[in-house]
Write a structure and sequence with these properties.
The complex is a heterodimer of chains A (about 190) and B (about 400). In chain A, about 10% of the residues lie in helices and about 40% in strands. In chain A, strands 1, 2, 3, 4, 5, 6, 7, 8, 9, 10 and 11 form an 11-stranded mixed β-sheet that branches. Chain A has about 190 residues and is mostly beta strands. By secondary structure, chain B is α+β, with helices and mostly antiparallel strands. In chain B, a hairpin with a 2-residue loop joins β6 and β7. The longest helix of chain B is centred in the first third of the chain and has 20 residues. Chain B is globular. The chains are: A mainly beta (about 190), B alpha+beta (about 400). Chains A and B meet through β1, β2 and β10 of A and α1 and α4 of B. Chain B: Its cofactor is heme b. Chain B: Belongs to the DyP-type peroxidase family. Chain B: GO terms for molecular function: peroxidase activity.
């Protein structure tokens, strides 16, 4: 189910990393299970103003092409998520016609090596802050792909938040020229507004 | 089939400033970063932020009216066989995402070298469409008057600098940033189009104190004094298509003009000035006044015209061309060319002319200059291309949406 990719840690870049303690917490939860969890947020979706999807701004989306890749059954979508609202939001899943299974994953250090696993409790974007989904960090894992993803294609993706609200986006498919499986950045950036 | 609406980017700039990429916070931040490992920085006054971050959105693509940038690079592309209207839509949405990220100083989505982008680079990216792509099944008809520039008697055009189905004009303060943006845009377009030609040049748009100036070509002439000023009704009427599918767009003529500096240098200063009708020192009309004063075309001295009958500035003057004018920009180039005699240096100007109606504005003025212009003796067009400049796009929309959706 969950592919674990190991690679040697590479140099980071000048971007503030998630504090080590927070990362460890996320890891502990993440190793337990992959996907399938029910939304855990408030079920009160009657008021559209409080919907999580309405507070989130998505930027710079793209999907990695599978053409030429060793394993063409899976890929990943990357983007930035900005929470402009007053409440934390939690990205719990996503769906797309091009993939049979979609999960929110992260790459992180486990026992000194990079490993990938599902973020089982969802990806929390705190109020007024943002998260970067990028190679080597958080990403939307696309598994059981229904066909090849070629550069120049577009993927329609629906993000699902813990209150049941959804936001759709269109992401271009781009060639990713770095060696497959080699994620060049340890950790995932998190930032203030 | 239309794609899901693009998401709002309302907080984009705030987001950018927070990533730590570049010193968007301003001079204080720049100094703080430098102080740790560069001792002189701690005593030097904080440098001013060197450039601007120019938002990519609006009724017009901002690169047209933006001040001349230090570096301009153009790449023309040809569409690959089989690219249709749907594919063009995907390319334009793809490029829109790249333009938004690069303009803000971020790497393009999926950029393997995002560090080469930085804010405050005066970066603008302008996209245009060649005559071959302005047809049914692609972008549809171009704006009124748009098409190929007809041949001119003095042209010596080379295919390698001419034509193209698409153009991207990237301008900015820094050649490295500009080159990186061009590279990403070309790489991302690979499924749809292949690069045809690429031209790069430089300009000095500020005086030593940092104030904007018109700038000079390699003849030493102040070049562009007669331009309509952005933000004025005259500029708007000159440059923008005002109605129809292309409203908010424009047209762009790119001419690669080789300049014979060796024979130009043989002229006396008086001959050089009379060939144009302006003083070399400050670009002022030979008939007096400051640089931006209008020429007095009737003025005579000792019986002869101060601005000669075949001076460039007279021949191009709107009053002698039915009021027709263009908005001109330029980029000086120097290139080594291998010849049988060895390596020679070719110098010239990548000349850019923006106008609402190519056939009614650019062509008649260019024909008048082709007929008579002293500068024809030292200048030769060796490349020519025309492009319909896409209208601007708002946040949540995309380049060319009104033409392709």
């Amino acid at each position: 189910m969950t592919r674990t990719t190991r690679t040697t840690p590479a140099r980071g870049r000048a971007r503030r990393l998630v504090p080590a303690a927070a990362l460890a917490l996320a890891l502990g939860a993440g190793l337990a299970a992959c996907g399938d969890e029910e939304p855990t947020g408030s079920a009160d979706t009657a008021s559209a103003a409080t919907e999580q999807a309405g507070s989130v701004t998505i930027g710079d989306p793209w999907v990695r092409a599978t053409v030429g890749a060793e394993d063409t059954s899976m890929s990943a979508a990357f983007m930035t998520l900005d929470n402009d609202g007053d409440e934390d939001v939690t990205l719990v899943g996503a769906s797309t016609e091009v993939a049979g299974m979609v999960e929110i994953h992260e790459m992180s250090m486990v026992d000194g090596a990079m490993a990938m696993q599902a973020v089982s409790d969802g990806l929390v974007v705190e109020a007024g802050r943002g998260k970067v989904l990028e190679p080597g960090g958080y990403h939307v894992m696309l598994m059981d792909l229904q066909g090849e993803l070629a550069p120049g294609d577009e993927v329609e993706l629906t993000l699902e938040f813990s209150d049941g609200s959804e936001q759709g986006l269109t992401a271009p498919v781009k060639e990713f020229t770095e060696e497959e499986g080699h994620y060049h950045e340890p950790g995932t950036g998190e930032h203030d507004h | 089939m239309s794609p899901a609406p693009r998401v709002s980017r309302r907080r984009l700039l705030g987001y950018v400033g927070s990533t730590g990429v570049g010193a968007a916070a301003g001079a204080g931040a720049v100094l703080a970063v430098g102080a740790e490992d560069a001792a002189p920085a701690s005593t030097a006054p904080a440098p001013a932020v060197p450039g601007r971050t120019i938002e990519p959105w609006g009724a017009h693509q901002p690169g047209v009216a933006a001040p001349q940038a230090a570096v301009s690079e153009l790449v023309a592309l040809d569409l690959l066989p089989g690219v249709d209207r749907d594919a063009l839509g995907r390319l334009m949405r793809l490029w829109t995402g790249d333009v938004e990220a690069l303009a803000a100083g971020r790497g393009a989505p999926g950029d393997p070298a995002p560090w080469l982008s930085q804010p405050a680079s005066d970066l603008t990216i302008t996209v245009g469409v060649g005559p071959g792509a302005c047809r049914p099944g692609l972008f549809g008809a171009g704006p009124p008057g748009f098409g190929d520039v007809p041949p001119m008697r003095h042209d010596r055009l080379q295919q390698r600098w001419s034509g193209g189905d698409l153009v991207v004009l990237v301008a900015g303060r820094d050649g490295t940033t500009v080159a990186h943006a061009v590279r990403r845009l070309v790489a991302d377009a690979a499924p749809f189009a292949r690069a045809r030609w690429r031209q790069v040049g430089s300009w000095n748009p500020t005086d030593p104190s940092g104030r904007p100036q018109t700038g000079r070509n390699l003849f030493g002439q102040v070049d562009g004094s007669g331009n309509p000023q952005p933000g004025t009704p005259l500029f708007d009427a000159t440059v923008w298509v005002d109605e129809g599918r292309w409203a908010g767009g424009s047209s762009l003529v790119v001419r690669r003009i080789r300049m014979d500096l060796d024979t130009w240098d043989e002229l006396t200063r008086d001959e050089q000035e009379r060939s144009v009708g302006r003083a070399l020192a400050d670009g002022a009309p030979l008939t007096g006044g400051p640089e931006l004063a209008d020429l007095d075309l009737a003025a005579r001295s000792q019986g002869r015209l101060v601005v000669p009958a075949d001076a460039h500035a007279r021949r191009a003057h709107p009053s002698l061309n039915g009021g027709r004018r263009m908005f001109r920009k330029g980029a000086n180039y120097t290139r080594e060319v291998e010849t049988e005699q060895g390596v020679e240096v070719e110098s010239g100007l990548v000349f850019l002319a923006f106008q609402a109606d190519l056939a009614d504005q650019f062509v008649p003025v260019q024909q008048a200059l082709d007929e008579s212009d002293q500068l024809n003796e030292w200048t030769t067009a060796i490349g020519s291309a025309s492009f319909a400049v896409l209208p601007g796009f708002e946040q949540g929309s995309w380049l060319g949406e009104q033409l392709l959706a």
